[in-house]
Design a protein that fits this description.
The chain is α+β, with helices and mostly antiparallel strands and 169 residues long. The chain contains 3 helices and 7 strands. It has a single domain, classed as Peptide deformylase (Peptide Deformylase, Alpha-Beta Complex), CATH 3.90.45. The strands form 2 sheets. Strands 1-2-3-6-7 form a 5-stranded antiparallel beta sheet. Strands 4-5 form a two-stranded antiparallel ribbon. A hairpin with a 5-residue loop joins strand 6 and strand 7. The model has no long low-confidence stretch (mean pLDDT 96). Nickel (II) ion binds next to helix 2.
Length: 169
């Protein structure tokens, strides 16, 4: 397995466009998913979408468990039901050093494929529902700061720049 560098806001086109559906469920995909698990854990994240490592494909990995031992992947996911709404504050590995409050459904049902191409459904609420919405947004080129007004978004991007400068020193 190997770590893959995470790209930050405006650093890579893949982050900001609609990702392509996955059509081949092969060895290369299985390896990519293993690398994404490793990269997510290394970055201390609870989710990572392929566009965040510069790959414009509809793949994301998630693990919201405390022990970080329940990873799963979603491929070509689609939200088929949503209900409720609340404001949720969350960070994003592609906008480090910031937290953003965005409107999220409290309950979602997601239809998706696994790494072998098999379809399954996930019914989620709470943290998992928020996380799934965040990762699926990534697959459509949308980051949580894209929900903000231009002024607030600029402030977040400045915070990110400062954070990145500090972490390079
Ligand atoms: Ni994110």
């Amino acid at each position: 397995m190997s770590l893959i560098p995470i790209v930050y806001y405006s650093q890579h086109a893949a982050l900001h466009k609609v990702a392509e559906p996955v059509t081949e469920f092969n060895e290369a995909l299985a390896k990519l998913i293993q690398d994404m698990y490793e990269t997510m854990y290394d970055a201390d994240g609870c989710g990572l979408a392929a566009p965040q490592i510069g790959i414009a494909k509809r793949i994301a990995v998630v693990d919201i468990s405390e022990e970080k031992n329940k990873p799963f992947c979603i491929i070509n996911p689609e939200i088929i039901e949503r209900s409720g709404s609340e404001m949720m504050s969350a960070g994003c590995l592609s906008v480090p050093g910031t937290y953003t409050t965005t409107p999220r459904a409290t309950h979602v049902k997601v239809r998706t494929q696994d790494e072998t191409g098999k379809f399954f459904e996930i019914e989620a609420e709470g943290v998992l529902a928020h996380c799934l919405q965040h990762e699926i947004d990534h697959l459509f080129g949308k980051l949580n700061i894209d929900y903000l007004s231009p002024l607030k978004k600029n402030m977040s991007l400045k915070k990110m720049e400062k954070f990145l400068k500090r972490s390079q020193q």
